[in-house]
Amino acid sequence: MFKIKRGRRLIGQSIGVAVLGGGLAVAVATTGSAVTYGTPYSLPFHQAGQLPITAIGYGSHGNDCGNAANQDGWAFVVPPADPSKNVFVTLTVTFSPGGTQTITSFGPPNDAHAIVFSAPGAQLISASATVKTATGVTDATFFNLSHTCPATSSSSPPASSPPPSGSPSPSHSPHPSGSPHPSGSPSSPPPGAPTPTPEHTNLPVTG
pLDDT above 90 covers what percent of the chain? Predict the structure, then answer.
């Protein structure tokens, strides 16, 4: 009986070690899957010769950018779109209108992809990126505009201001009052007044 019990105990210990060993093997395998990257470096834009680019005018369209209906979506990728090889560190794009955006948060689905939004119809006029490559993997040579997701509607333009009301007519200067008659000049008698009779004086003639 003792031997049987001891045998059972040894079998149980062996099973426990096997399970523990399997767990260790899994842990080692998991740890070994982590990717170590080299120093970030600048990468040219593959479509630089096509700039400026509009989302609607680009040759490859999709609907997976996550942009609103009144936004253009732009999907960039660093080949081979595999985060175990290359990932974005920064992406800087300039639109007209819209100005410059610098992106540091990437995906979906991973950091080898970058999604940017712009106003509908905006032109992409420049793009640059820094990336990093996994240790032991050959450096990337460019990053790419994979596709665009053009807006499906455009924002309503702001309401136009009502035309200015008619300017008030300039006030007219009052007509200058009639100049007064010069002092000493007789004035005409008022209507209905009797005409004065000239007076005759008979003075004696003296010699």
Answer: 57
Q: What is the mean pLDDT of residues 39-55?
A: 97
* 30 domain residue, yes or no: no
Q: Who has greater pLDDT, 139 or 158? A: 139
pLDDT average, residue stretch 165-174: 50
**Contact present, 73 and 117 (Cβ < 8 Å):** yes
103 falls within a domain: yes
Range of the structural domain that residue 98 is part of: 42-132+142-149
How many other C-beta atoms are found inside a 10 Å radius of the C-beta of residue 89?
18
> DSSP labels for 73-98?
EEEEE-TT--TTTEEEEEEEEEEETT
pLDDT digits 0-9 by tens, 89-118: 999 999 999 999 999 999 999 999 999 999
What pLDDT sits at residue 130?
98
Mean pLDDT, the chain, as a whole number? 76
**Distance set, CA 29 to CA 25, 33, 36, 48, 76 (Å):** 6, 7, 15, 42, 32
- Give the position of tokens 């680009």: 58
Tally of domains in the chain? 1
Q: How far apart are CA 87 and CA 133, in angstroms?
A: 7
How many residues belong to the chain?
A: 207
Tell me, yes or no, whether 74 lies in a domain. Answer: yes
Rounded to whole angstroms, the Cα distance separating 4 from 19 reads 23
Judge whether 181 lies within some domain: no
Structure tokens at 164: 């200015």
